[in-house]
């Protein structure tokens, strides 16, 4: 069977299952009495095993099958799994994750499960007969009255024993096919495994009791017609005769009464129907199709805006009403498309319980993790990109921020550190915060490291405050770690975080109180595809500034603009801001003095931009710019306007970063003084 067309779905679902298993195992380690999590672990592991076997990845299926034995222990005990068992299971999940990545890379598993299987088998104890029956899908055995009923109706009761080959990849599927083939020739009145327990069946022997008027040869032929069947035996069951000898000693004693099985069947069917209904409410869609849908939606927004502009001066009530209806419908469609692309930030948060557990154990620290706002939604593209920056922040908190239990007790704190990751909506943005109650940022320690790295001199280090220390932490290559390890110390942390967040059109702000903790805040747009922006004109050319970066607009009066050290500064009631000339920023020819200014926030500071005209708020579909246009320019993208012109979207962070020249800093200090 060619499974290549199912490979993307397999890879996506395998990653989801592994992530869910990592989270569930860590949760169960913290709360051993959570039976719902126990059941969830067993279901996920069984699904992963079945998927892998279906796709032909035997080693992944083999290891997952052995893991099920350990997960089965969770159903037998109320004290959860020990540390050794959790470590072994997590090691298996890491190996499976690596194998999934290699499958995507070259189609091969690259997995040797035997060492891990040996570790797993040390954790498993011998099962009871009842547990063996449950493990192999349960049983439904016909009661003695079934034989009399069959004979009274002119039929006979046949017992069909089927042995599957040792190489069978999907025993549950083959058992279902055997029952279906025999069901065409009569009524299935008993079976091992039971029809409702087929999804758990992993054995090689299938037994069926059939009330039929066909002979043994017909039943045997029907069973042999199923793939992976090695042998078939059919015998007639007499009213006074015991069960016939099986093909080989049966390892599964029959301990389930027919009445019990019949009573349990409706409940199992109801549960199965509930799961099927839940699955039917969701559809997995390829990400490229969503991107294409968003692209077409963006084109529709552009055309709608053009229609509105062209018809605004036409006095035709019917036309105006039609345009209003078009606008209303397209806006509703736009909102729906945006919602379809939204996914909860919990997709990212799910990785952190495992990360915190492993790192805190390696560092010898006691840490409590709190995850808040997990249901907060943002665009899929943003979710995909924000994971690595958050990992950097969490690792920094664990390694540099939080102290050991002894250090915390000496400082008068609880021995267990607290790490909080929270997400929330704020206007048109999503705010993600990483907060710890650790030692905070020590300006003196940062200053010593900066002097050793040649970034500042000793005199500057003496006057360094928390704010200055934070800016040094964002310097490329700078680290406060005493030694380099696999956790930190390589100087590729905070600068990488800032660079990545700025690529997403967001900003990152760090704050700290020595001795009390550190607070990192990431602010991101809800979506990167359509932005709400203020359109401005600079010497006749259109530009746009994202609305969430604008503080206010004002008219430039001669008294509020000063020139200091060759730099223009804007004096407002709440401070002194650098004033950038729009024409100079974008190398446009000056046609006169700018009359208006827009005060924006960028790189955690405020600045003014002098412009010629404020056109109005627009919904713009952003597009990336070719390097020949964007290289060296403070722009983050472009958008097509209703009249066909291209409006460049101003990158406020890039503008603010260009204010760090000595002349600009001197001018600001002089005017502020």
Primary descriptors:
5 domains, 673 residues, Helix Hairpins, five-stranded mixed β-sheet, disordered C terminus, six-stranded mixed β-sheet, 24 helices, Alpha-Beta Plaits, alpha+beta, single chain, Four Helix Bundle (Hemerythrin (Met), subunit A)
Task: Tell me what you see in this structure.
- The protein has five domains: 122 residues, HPT domain (Four Helix Bundle (Hemerythrin (Met), subunit A)); 146 residues, 2-Layer Sandwich (Alpha-Beta Plaits); 58 residues, Helix Hairpins, CATH 1.10.287; 180 residues, Histidine kinase-like ATPase, C-terminal domain (Heat Shock Protein 90, 2-Layer Sandwich); 143 residues, OB fold (Dihydrolipoamide Acetyltransferase, E2P) (Beta Barrel), CATH 2.40.50.
- Helix content is 46%, strand content 23%.
- Strands 14-18-19-17-16-15 form a six-stranded mixed β-sheet.
- Strand 15 and strand 16 form a beta hairpin.
- Helix 1 packs across helix 14 and helix 11 runs antiparallel to helix 12.
- The radius of gyration is 34 Å and the shape is flat.
- The C terminus is likely disordered.
């Amino acid at each position: 069977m060619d499974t290549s067309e199912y490979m993307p779905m397999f890879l996506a679902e395998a990653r989801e299952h592994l992530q869910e298993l990592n989270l569930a195992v860590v949760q169960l380690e913290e709360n051993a009495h959570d039976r719902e999590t126990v059941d969830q672990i067993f279901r996920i592991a069984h699904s992963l095993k079945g998927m892998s076997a279906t796709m032909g990845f035997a080693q992944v299926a083999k290891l997952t099958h052995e893991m099920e034995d350990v997960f089965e222990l969770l159903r037998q005990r109320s004290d959860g799994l020990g540390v050794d068992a959790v470590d072994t299971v997590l090691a298996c999940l890491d190996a499976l994750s690596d194998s999934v990545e290699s499958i995507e890379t070259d189609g091969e598993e690259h997995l040797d499960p035997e060492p891990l299987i040996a570790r797993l088998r040390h954790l498993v104890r011998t099962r009871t007969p009842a547990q063996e029956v449950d493990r192999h899908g349960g049983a439904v055995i016909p009661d003695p009255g079934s034989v009399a009923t069959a004979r009274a109706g002119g039929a006979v009761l046949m017992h069909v024993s089927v042995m599957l080959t040792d190489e069978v990849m999907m025993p549950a599927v083959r058992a279902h096919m055997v029952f279906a083939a025999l069901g065409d020739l009569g009524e299935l009145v008993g079976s091992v495994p039971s029809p409702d327990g087929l999804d758990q069946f992993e054995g090689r022997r299938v037994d069926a009791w059939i009330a039929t008027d066909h002979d043994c040869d017909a039943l045997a032929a029907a069973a042999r017609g199923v793939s992976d069947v090695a042998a078939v035996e059919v015998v007639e069951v007499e009213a006074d005769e015991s069960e016939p000898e099986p093909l080989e000693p049966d390892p599964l004693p029959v301990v389930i009464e027919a009445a019990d099985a019949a009573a349990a069947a409706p409940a199992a069917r109801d549960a199965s129907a509930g799961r099927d209904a839940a699955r039917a409410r969701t559809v997995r869609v390829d990400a490229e199709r969503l991107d294409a849908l968003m692209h077409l939606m963006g084109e529709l927004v552009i055309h709608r805006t053009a229609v509105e502009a062209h018809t605004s001066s036409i006095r035709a009530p019917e036309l105006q009403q039609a345009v209003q209806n078009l606008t209303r419908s397209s806006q509703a469609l736009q909102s729906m498309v945006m919602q379809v692309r939204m996914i909860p930030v919990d997709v990212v948060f799910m990785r952190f319980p495992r990360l915190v557990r492993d790192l805190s154990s390696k560092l010898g620290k006691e840490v409590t993790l709190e995850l808040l706002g997990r249901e907060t939604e943002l665009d899929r593209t943003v979710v995909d990109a924000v994971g690595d920056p958050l990992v950097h922040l969490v690792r920094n908190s664990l390694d540099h921020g939080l102290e050991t239990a002894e250090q915390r007790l000496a400082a008068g704190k609880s021995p267990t550190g607290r790490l909080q990751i929270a997400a929330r909506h704020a206007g048109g943005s999503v705010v993600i915060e990483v907060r710890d109650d650790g030692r905070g940022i020590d300006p003196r320690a940062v200053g010593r490291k900066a002097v050793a790295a040649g970034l500042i001199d000793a005199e500057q280090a003496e006057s360094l405050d928390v704010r200055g220390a934070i800016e040094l932490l964002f310097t490329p290559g700078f680290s406060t770690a005493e030694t380099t390890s696999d956790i930190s110390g390589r100087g590729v942390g905070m600068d990488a975080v800032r660079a990545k967040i700025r690529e997403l059109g967001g900003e990152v702000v760090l704050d700290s109180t020595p001795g009390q903790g550190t607070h990192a805040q990431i602010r991101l747009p809800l979506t990167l595809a359509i932005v709400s922006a203020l359109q401005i004109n600079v010497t006749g050319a259109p530009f746009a500034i994202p609305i969430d970066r604008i503080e206010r607009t004002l008219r430039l009066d001669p008294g509020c603009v000063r020139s200091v050290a060759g730099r223009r500064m804007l004096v407002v009631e709440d401070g002194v801001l650098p004033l950038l000339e729009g024409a100079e920023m974008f190398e446009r020819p000056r046609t006169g003095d700018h009359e208006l200014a827009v005060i924006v926030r960028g790189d955690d500071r405020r600045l003014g931009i002098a412009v010629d005209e404020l056109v109005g708020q627009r919904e713009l579909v952003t597009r990336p710019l070719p390097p020949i246009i964007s290289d060296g320019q403070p722009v983050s993208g472009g958008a097509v306007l209703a009249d066909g012109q291209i409006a460049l979207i101003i990158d406020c962070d890039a503008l603010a970063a260009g204010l760090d020249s000595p002349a600009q800093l001197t001018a600001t200090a002089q005017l502020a003084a």
